[in-house]
Amino acid sequence: MNYFLNRACFSGFVIALLAIGCKNADSNNETIIKGTTNLLVDESFLPIIEDQVAVFQGQYNAKIVIDAKSEKEIIRSFLQDTSRIVILSRKLNDEEKTHFEKMQIKPKVTQIASDAIAFISNKSNKDTLISLAEVILFMQGKPQRRIKGLVFDNPNSSTVRYITDLAGISNLPQKDVFSYKSNKEVIKFVSENEGMIGVVGLNWLYQPSTDIIKYVENINVLSVQGKGSTTFFPPTQNNLAEGSYPLARDLFIINCQGTSGLGMGFASFVAGDVGQRIVLKSGLLPIRIPGRKILIRTKSKNDDK
């Protein structure tokens, strides 16, 4: 009962927001459903956000320009006011929140999905299991028999931050740990080189762009054993929902526009029914499972004959 009540309240909130946007459309250059704005996006989640923006723009008279970079780069741009809307896999830290408080802006944070960091290997590698404890030891400079090398997307990425935090280190090791510029390059490299393990955002594996589909077909997605666990889990929606996959992370839209602009409208859209269906289809885990309409027939078509 609480689920349906919360769902109804949330739907009512979204409808109210859209109504306000329509009312103010003629008097403002930008409302929650009209105008143009820039959106800073962590490159790890670019495929799902591109889908969300495409559908949002198709429904409303709005244009959202995506600027995808590594986490450190988009935070720098965010604080320099390149854009007031950002998508991250973490909330703002105290220093970042203080920056906006001085401007009398309270960040609006909307959780939109759960993603995962995935380990991948070349298709020729028959071992599809990996222990998180081994990865951490390898990152700490302690050689591991089953890990020849780790390949990351970008030294400034959220993926690197996540793994280095787990390992308790500040920077990537100099030996047998490599980084490129994007998830695309990691997938391509691993598909062409045996023995290397890539570290990428799960979204890139479920929604590969056309130029890397052939590379995705030549990799294995590894099942991961968490610290203190005896079981290996693949990064699936079900395992994310049950909390059994050890490398899950939440995605947030952080809006510091300070006004009722496209940031508010887009966040409401992604967290609403249509946006959550897009998340579900993408292979990530929505924050609320979209409802399903079931039609019950009391008689068959043949009864009318």
Q: Considering the protein shown, what is the CATH homologous superfamily of the largest domain?
A: Periplasmic binding protein-like II
Report the CATH architecture of the largest domain. 3-Layer(aba) Sandwich
CATH class term of the largest domain: Alpha Beta
What profile does the largest beta sheet have? 10 strands, mixed
Q: What's the overall average pLDDT, rounded?
A: 87
Structure overview:
The chain is an alpha/beta fold. It folds into two domains: 2-111 and 250-286, Periplasmic binding protein-like II (D-Maltodextrin-Binding Protein, domain 2, 3-Layer(aba) Sandwich), CATH 3.40.190.10; 115-248, 3-Layer(aba) Sandwich (D-Maltodextrin-Binding Protein, domain 2), CATH 3.40.190. The protein has twelve helices and 13 strands. The protein has helices at residues 2-24, 46-59, 71-79, 94-101, 132-139, 158-167, 183-192, 203-206, 213-216, 237-242, 262-271, 273-282, and strands spanning 34-42, 61-69, 85-88, 108-122, 129-131, 149-152, 177-179, 196-201, 219-221, 223-225, 232-233, 248-255, 285-286. The strands form two sheets. Strands 1, 2, 3, 4, 6, 7, 8, 9, 12 and 13 form a ten-stranded mixed beta sheet that branches. It has a three-stranded mixed beta sheet with strand order 5-10-11. Helix 6 links the parallel strand 6 (149-152) and strand 7 (177-179). It is globular, with a radius of gyration of 22 Å. The model is unreliable at 1-28 (pLDDT under 50).
